[in-house]
Amino acid sequence: MNLIKSTFGALAGVSLFCVTAEAEIVAKAVRGDVSKPQPAAAYWANAPVEKVSLIAQPMAIPRPAVALTPELRVQAVHDAKWLAVRLTWKDPEYSEAGHLGEFSDAVAMQFPVKSNESPPPIFMGAKDNPVHIFHWRAQYQRDQEKGKPEMTDLYPNLSVDMYPMEFKDPGTLGTSANSGREQFSPGRAEGNPQSYQKNGVDEIVAEGFSTSSVQEGHGSAASGTWAAGEWSVVIVRELNREGGSVLTVGGKTFMGFAVWQGGASEVGSRKCVTMAWTPVTLEGAQAAAR
Description:
single chain, 8% helix, globular, disordered N terminus
C-alpha cells in the first residue's frame, strides 16, 4: 500500500483530507496523437505502471461492506495536447447494467481545478474549490457501440397499454413519431444529459458531496476492454480544458480515483476510492524527441 503523508496539521483544519501519496504518476511524452482511447496501443509498453491503493468508501452512506478493488494500476502518456490514462483493475464479472437492479462496472479519475499545488479535499472537492471528474461506465460504452437500448430491447415480452409506440401493431392509433417518446421520459423532456446516449465518458464538476454537475459539449472519450477477469480502460482528455482543470507540459498536478464493480451491486457511494491525492508529473516535450 502506498505510504501517505499529511499536508495539514489538525483534522479540524480546513484542509481536511488534503493528503498526498508518496507514489507518483509520470505521464510520458510521446510522439504522435493520443487523442483516441486505445487500450492496446504500443506506447503503453514504455509507460511506467503506478500501483494505487483503494479502500471501501468510508464517508457517505450507503458504504460498501468490503473493498472489492484494493488496487488500481495507472499509466499515463501525453502528446502536449492530450493526456491519455490507462486504468487496469481486477473484476471477475463483466457488468454493463440494463435491467432493473443491475449495475455497471465503472471507473473515475479526478483532478483539482483551481490549483495544481494545493488541491482541495479529495472527497469531491469543496465549496469554491472544485474538482474535475472523468467517469467511464461499461454501460456508456455499450450504448456508444450498440445504441442505447429501448425498453423493448431490455424486456422483449413487456406489455404496456399506455404507450402505443411500443407496440408492433399500433391498431387504430396509427404510427407514432419517435419524438412522441419524449413526453413519456421526464429526463429527456427536461434535457437531463443522463437520459441520452453517451460517448463513453462523463465529465463532471463537483464542489463537495451531492454537487456533481455533468458537463456537456466536452471532447474527452474513453474505451475499455475486459478479459480474463480484468478491465483495462483508457480515458483521454485535453490538457487545457476550458471551464475545467488545466494541465501543463513539464508541470505537476494531482489525481484521485474510484472504481465500481457493478456485478457486486456497487453503484453511487458504494465504491472503492483513493484516500489520498496521487501526484502527477507531465514529462517535458523534449523527452518525446529522445
